[in-house]
User: Fold Nucleotide modification associated domain-containing protein from Methylorubrum extorquens DSM 13060.
Amino acid sequence: MRLHSYVVDHDLGFAPNPFHRICTLAACKPKIRKHADLGDYIVGTGSIPNKLAGRVVYWMRIDEILSFDEYWNDPRFMRKRPILTGSRMQIYGDNIYRKRDDGTFDQADSFHSEPGGIISQPNLMRDTGYTDNVLLGREYAYWGGSGPSLPVGLEKIAHSTQGHINNSIPPALVTAFISWVRGMPDRGFMGRPANWPS
Assistant:
């Protein structure tokens, strides 16, 4: 069991997508999505531009890993497909990739596509070029812009730049972090994404 820690630069409810009682990471962070295993934990901390450094945006425990096609075709996750004329929750749906017959990926009209539904090649390559994994967690807490500060002693788990850390987090800190978050009663979607308009 490992803890994967990174900074959530753009907190819009897209990556992660904390809606519909399951937290999903289906875009961005390809190295985490490739190397994370069932039972691992992910923590996203706030960014300096959002004035949330050292605060927890969300955490999740991974209990299912699907391919993009499995995610796209699973009836459980149809509501995670984006609807750009819908609510903000629908606009930032993350179920956006499926394979064509030739093995390449199609990208739904979404936050990661260009205006008019044109495929964004940089986003497509970042999201699909390194891994086909979508991470899902039913045990999670998402606070968005109102998350708690990491307590004294756990500040070192917060990554300070783009990218992520996992193997460099000492096991004692991993255990302490998990005990801390699991000791809080809060679960599910509890706060607005930091970058949603007020």
User: Anything to note?
Assistant: DSSP finds five helices and eleven strands in the chain.
